[in-house]
Design brief:
endopeptidase fold (from Nostoc punctiforme); six-stranded antiparallel beta sheet; two-stranded antiparallel ribbon; globular
Length: 259
Amino acid sequence: MSNMLEKCGYSLSCWLSRPRLWHQAEIRIEHDVLANLQPGDVLLVEGSSRLSTVIKYLTQSTWSHAALYVGKAACLELVEARRGECFIEADLAEGVRMVGFEEYEGHPLRICRPVGLNIDEVERLIASVCGRVGQRYDLRNIIDLARYLLPLPPVPAPLRRRMLSLGSGDPTRAICSTLIAQAFQSVNYPILPIAEWQDDTRRCHGCRRRVLQRRHYSLFTPRDFDLSPYFEIVKPVLVNGFDHRRLIWRETKGDLLQP
């Protein structure tokens, strides 16, 4: 019975994760992404699978997937690393795995860069995700997977974020941002922490200090890295010296695309 549930769960997860070729993004952003990545960068992806559609609906965001760029050096240290595989992601069907940039080509992308991490912290961040390569979600939890069968599940807005977290407590979850959020929390780097004020009597009577509280890692979504004030948005076109005067425009009588 256990093996049967595992096979059914794997088949269902593959179906949910399969890209839909007919779904193409209207605007693809951007070129030269790979050349501008640094180890520790989070790459956001607008996916086209059935699961991606649900994630974008529940999070009210363009971004449905996140991967951590670990660099070539970290890939070569893993026994089964192949040349060019420089990203680690959590896949619903395959678990935590390493992939190359070709996995994301043709999709809108965004680079989110943590600011201020030193070399030791970046190494610990990367080691955290590399150490989990090969872990897989318990695919016998068919009920957890079945919630994604509806393309637009009727879920109240306050509960949408919690719906994204699978219920087994297994270390690998359906939402890739969980893996990355745990890694950043391991080096005490903030994403979207909860801020509260506490009395600070050591400084003076009536003084208060701002204290941050971590959100549970299972509640993070890909768009949180985009919204976070602690991540810099890197746009390769601007980094490489953008000059709008050098653009070549097609001469037309009016705009090609009318509303």
